[in-house]
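sorry to bug you again but im stuck and you know this stuff better than me. what follows is a protein written twice so to speak, once as letters and once as structure tokens for the fold. mainly i need to know what kind of three dimensional shape the backbone takes. anything you notice is useful, everything is just below:
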Amino acid sequence: MQSDEGSILYWNLNPDTKIPLLDVADDTGKFVAGIILNQAELVGKDIYGATGWYTPSDMVNTIQEVTGQKTTYQQVSDETFQSFLPEAIAEELKETFMLIRDYAYYGPGGDKNVAESLKVRATVSSRRNLTRESY
């Protein structure tokens, strides 16, 4: 949202809630190919399709760095967040972000599992991982 003082990102997440990002067009095939190439070692393992963890604070800092525009983050109540969204998806998105905030996107151990999953992706590509700046 724009204000006289710059942009404000409103979300019902804590400023330090970790959110995984993935460049679907660029990374999905690399994860899939990595799984196919390493299937013997990966049987029974979960592969998390994410190239990194980012918080609302990280996102605001990145927007400021990239655009030069003052940007702030403001956590809002679940009900206020829901009121910003289109009615058809408002409740579902509100509840989705509540689960991410309260239980973590991938649950306990998600940080370690994303790091392990990136090793699978790396077997296919030496390209850089998606960063919040390039996203």
